[in-house]
Amino acid sequence: MKFLCFHGATTNSETSWEKDHLRRDLELDDTASFHFIEGLFPSEPIRDVEYECPAPNLRWYDHNGIDLTKGVKHFSEMLTFKNMTSPEDGARRAWEDYSGGVSNGTELMVEYARNIIEDEGPFDGFIGASEGGSAAATVLMDQLQLSRKQGQACTIQCAIFFVAAAPLTEDGKGYLLSDTTDQRITVPTCHVYSEKDLLCWMAKALENVCQDDGKTTILHEGGHTIPHTEKLMVDVAKFVRKVKQGDIQGTPLTVHNAARG
Asked: Least packed by Cβ within 10 Å: which of 95, 236, 237, 249?
């Protein structure tokens, strides 16, 4: 299986995946290979120590209003809404209060990904972290729609989302949410996040826009981060191998993993 990988906000492909046990595990027995791409838009680095990384600092969306320079903890606290009724309610309130829209919509990012898929593909799966998870989900929605229009099966067999957010609408004016659309990501998905993360409702909003068949949720004990530990990545690797073997479960599966960082 060949995966297209989207790094997290204000990082880059080298620093996002340099400690990746998943990559080592799946490459060791030729289960999977990985193609890493870079975000389109320059950004200031995030100040939180655990998120610091060397330049280039890149993002997938040209946001008008989201400033991450004060750190993820500060940003998370801003988005901890009182009386939140659902993950979708939180996503809408976050967008209305802080996003201010995405310049150029999502067209530029999606077109960029389409060109990479055409030149470097076909790909069997997507992997995305944080904002890169939202970008991966947005591109996956686009690929599924293209395949339906062309009357062809989509080559993407699965997606893995680490502490990610929901896909954006085509016009870049909001998140694509399960309570406002019937559109769904119709391939098996793996969602990795922590309920201790103040932004976990973003990951849940993404979960809800994915079909139940073949859905795996892996809950870890960290915060808004990817615990690059062998213990966690073994569970993610199991998901990939099941997809490759055609042995994915039909009903949602939740795995509790004690990894912290």
From this structure: 249
Q: Helix H segments across 58-179?
A: 72-78, 87-94, 107-120, 131-150
**For residue 96, what pLDDT is reported?**
77
Cα-based distances in Å from 8 to 29, 61, 64, 153:
27, 11, 18, 29
Strands 2-6, 41-42: parallel, antiparallel or unpaired by DSSP? unpaired
Rounded to two decimals, the pTM is 0.90
Rg over CA atoms, the chain: 17
What's the distance, CA 250 to chain centroid?
22
> What is the DSSP pairing of strand 58-59 with strand 41-42?
antiparallel
Q: What is the pLDDT of residues 107-157, one digit of tens each?
A: 889 999 999 999 999 999 999 998 999 999 999 999 999 999 999 999 999
